[in-house]
């Protein structure tokens, strides 16, 4: 929880009643401490360590000017790997609180580690994250171990316990494998440069595999195997590598970079040394399988030989078969040639017929006959066309006569025309004394308007 500012703290304090009981005061103080302080790390000297039967641990952290009480409860104490003792410099992580029963200001601890190891652990985690991001731990880049190595390089201290364990395992399981010790310091400031040179030298020696090993120790003792230079030299090796550093619970950067991580030096030797008795049993099994396969192969060969003997015939029979085959092929060839010649003759006759059909003289003769036929058909077609046109003309004249004004005049009607030749359509269009022309069926009469009186015509007149 984020710390409160001064104004909020002042308001919280002034909001309390004027008189508090001791328990109320301690409860308020504990709440304020837990609200203000986040989870923190505190480094100091361990003292007054006590372990009651409850499983909890109580101790004091101090420096040259102050001290603070600490409580490590059972569920968190079970996860602490450090063997805690008075006078030890440690780093404790926890939250600030207050024990209300006594009014003691204290630190509720959930993790404890040695002060020196803590710095190394941070460096270890930082380098591990960096190399992992670069892909040095990826399984795709790691090489498989050889199945049956004959020559192995061991990079370790020639006087350490690790080299004795490795030699013992190989002597017991696979004494026929050649071991070459590549000496290097495995502890101290000079260890990392020597390990890098030893890896480069062993990789150039073309071993079947390389074991990088040392015995157990503290994190500081194992630190050369957590150096970045050693990790990069290990990653650059073209030879399959095994990292066997420390005990089974110890992990180093070399374990993650190497092709295979072995929990102990002896386990690394067992990974690369096939068991001699197991190899003998495997060889015996392979010998039995080989003998069985040979027997099966010989049986199949005998069967094939018997089959070939039954199929083997006198050369004369073979020649007779070939002669019969030759006669058959000759007859087939003759039939094929005859069919081919017959097809060519039919094709030639077809082309000759087409050529005669397409001859220019024949084509001119056909065109001349077509011209004569058309010349004979033309007068008949013209006469028929004229007759058809005359008939249509008569029909149209009759139709025109039926609607013609002259036909109307023939039935006794007339048309009055003024002097300009326009038809008089109404009596109102005339005046007395006006001269008009009356158009009849067979001529024209001059008439004069004498009186303009309305007159009603009947359809019966």
Describe the structure.
It is a single chain. The chain is of the alpha/beta class and 461 residues long. The protein is 49% helix and 18% strand. It contains 13 helices and 13 strands. The chain has helices at 6-14, 22-36, 74-77, 115-134, 161-173, 191-204, 228-235, 253-257, 265-272, 276-311, 315-357, 360-403, 405-410; strands spanning 40-50, 57-62, 67-72, 89-99, 104-114, 151-156, 178-183, 209-214, 241-245, 260-261, 415-417, 435-439, 444-448. The chain is flat, with a radius of gyration of 64 Å. The relative contact order is 0.05.
Topology, pairings included?
Layout: H1 6-14, H2 22-36, E1 40-50, E2 57-62, E3 67-72, H3 74-77, E4 89-99, E5 104-114, H4 115-134, E6 151-156, H5 161-173, E7 178-183, H6 191-204, E8 209-214, H7 228-235, E9 241-245, H8 253-257, E10 260-261, H9 265-272, H10 276-311, H11 315-357, H12 360-403, H13 405-410, E11 415-417, E12 435-439, E13 444-448
Parallel strand pairs: 3-5, 6-7, 6-8, 8-9, 9-10
Antiparallel strand pairs: 1-2, 1-4, 2-3, 4-5, 11-12, 12-13
Instruction: Please report the total strand number as a whole number.
Output: 13
Strand content: 15-25%
Which residues form runs of ≥5 with pLDDT under 50?
Answer: none
> What value does the average pLDDT take?
84
Outline:
This protein is of the alpha/beta class and 461 residues long. It has 13 helices and 13 strands. The chain is 49% helix and 18% strand.
